[in-house]
Amino acid sequence: MELKCQHAVIRVSDVTAAKDFYVNKLGFRLLEEAGNFFAVAAGGIRLSVFGGCERTEPSEEAKTGVSLIFRTEDLDAFAAVLKSKGILPYGEVIDIPNFHKFLEYEDPDGNVFFLAQYYVEPI
Asked: Has residue 62 got a pLDDT over 60?
């Protein structure tokens, strides 16, 4: 048998702000919403976003152990779109030759995600 990542969960303190971020700013397609929850299609992965998480002050120690990588075909163009919406990366583009280049971002709750452009298929 083979396991595949099909579905990820993100916990946030403010579902309304998170929905605006993931749907309106990042552009993911809304699949469903109810009460303190919504889900979006992120490529072949379903992201379910649940409220009820307590927001902590940003710090290097407060980072979670899991980060998501969102793939784009044109890192520079998509980063420019995010910048036009007020979403700025932390640091400069990191380029790993013969694999991918990426930028690090955070959602409104400090959940880390990366925007990446792959040179080769990762698996």
From this structure: no
